[in-house]
Amino acid sequence: MTERSTTMDASALAGLAGRHLDLVQAPFTLPRSRVLVFRADRDEWVERGGAEGAAPATALRVHTSEYERWLDECRVIDELVVRDASGRALLVTAVLPHAIEFGDGDATLTFAGAGAISVGGAGGLSVEWTTPDGERTRVELTADAPAARLHIGADRGVVHEASASHADDLAATEGRWLDWFAKCPIVRDELQQMAAFCWWVLGANIVELPALGDVRGVVPSKIGYVGVWQWDAYFIAVGLRHGDPALAREQLEIAFRFPSADGQLPDVVHEEGVLATSDDLPQADRDRLRRAGSQIADPGAPVPLTKPPLAAWALRKVLEVEDEPEWAREQLAVIRRSQDWWFAGSDLDGDGMPEYGHPYSSGLDDSPIFDGPLPTTAPDLGAYLVLQDLELAALAERYGADAAGEPRAHRERAARTLELLLGMWDEASGRFLARAAGEVVASDAVVGFMPLLTGRLPQKVAEALLAALGDPERYALPWAVPTVSAADPDFSAERMWRGPVWVNTNALIVEGLRASGHPELARELAERTVALVVHGGGPHEYFNPLTGRKARTATTAFGWSAALFIDLAVALSADD
């Protein structure tokens, strides 16, 4: 049996997480803050492909985190340096969740609340920073004012003041992080360090959404993904439930807060509103779709944008750790209407099986199943709809039909949808095939494994899917499960959704294997998935299936990868 500690204090967990805070893949930040601190040569470091041989940092760069704006657009300080009395720049020698240390602890940088940083040290030191417009400021630290506090405005401007309260700022920031790590789940010893880092990622990715009131959104990443995407909220809530079920519920509340009049849930809730139709797309997304040759870049009429229906699944998971009946009934009423919308508003050819009207609604935007014309009939959507109706039936029996609907009606619709889903099975190729505007799509993609989630596949079909998972020519690569078969002409080990491994699709296949009566295979894939995250150095957005390393363009410190690592690690540790 693998060793597992039963307790670990918050300080020790913070120290484990700190081993991954490199100021490149993991910035220095604070829960609820929009300020990010990186090493100033981060871009060069990334371009070289990693830390091997990298010189210690002497200069830091400060950015804000904003919706639909990338780091380079959000620069606040290009270079921040701490210098000794001779003018020599001090090296960064340690990064902890609450502080960046320079020299031999001669100076530290910490947060002074969510919107300011404080740099403090002994007299004789100085702090110097340069803004993107080339303005340089230098502040001498003295015995009376041993710190410089830099306030960062919404306009990315910097206002500084001398401060004598650096020690208080350090203590307050450390206290904030220790409170967070006190909630970190305890897992098997060899997984605990990564679990602590993943818990840091979830805390680091908390932002305030003032337009919604006193709301905490756990975003996919403060590096470019500042909003609450519906699908991400589900996966993130599933991980958060193990340490902070209240925050997990808050993510679902945000995702469910803005249904349309007909029940459709929006793709994204962000600080400027919601993304619910193609009319809401930011210009950068439209431009990207045009470059990709998408037929949906400029639709003639607004196309609804949502995410796959896993709401009831996520709700049930969150309620497993802390039951909240009245709250659950409120959410179920929204989920029920959303499920009805899929059949009333997204069955675009009228055959009883809803389709994806836009690639964004699938969560797998760049999958080759969307290379053809839209709408796309996809086996993953069919599987999610069956699962959601089955979940709604069970939740209706638990919390009452007034909110969730009659259990029998949900089960009958699930049976009809399952029959249509099985009609997508192609005996000759041994896989589920998507259809683009009615025409068969030949792509061999990970969406074909999602019907396992129903737990109701004929034995012959399930066995064919298990054989595909074990086939080294298709899906049993060194690091599995690739999102497109290695034997498919569209396979790419690096290109988003066209080959790289994603933690969320792996986790869903794990769920499907369990539901289909294959617990040992489920555990094996769960072990391989947590091993991938450890091997890859963190919960990246997606991984190269041949090397197990971060794919070149993948975002780091990614929310659902962190949350699902924790969920898998907790389950694996409980099984030991």
Give a structural overview:
The protein is of the alpha+beta class and about 575 residues long. The chain has two domains: about 25-165, no CATH class; about 185-575, Alpha/alpha barrel (Glycosyltransferase). It has 16 helices and 21 strands. The protein has helices spanning about 10-20, 40-50, 165-180, 190-205, 230-240, 245-255, 285-290, 310-320, 325-345, 380-400, 400-405, 405-420, 460-470, 505-515, 520-535, 560-575, and strands spanning about 35-40, 60-65, 75-85, 90-95, 100, 105-110, 115-120, 125-130, 135-140, 145-150, 160-165, 205-210, 215-220, 230, 270, 275, 375, 425, 430, 435, 440. The chain has a six-stranded antiparallel β-sheet with strand order 4-5-6-7-10-11. Strands 1-2-3-8-9 form a five-stranded antiparallel β-sheet, with no helix packed on it. The longest helix is centred in the middle third of the chain and has 21 residues, at about 325-345. The radius of gyration is 24 Å and the shape is elongated.
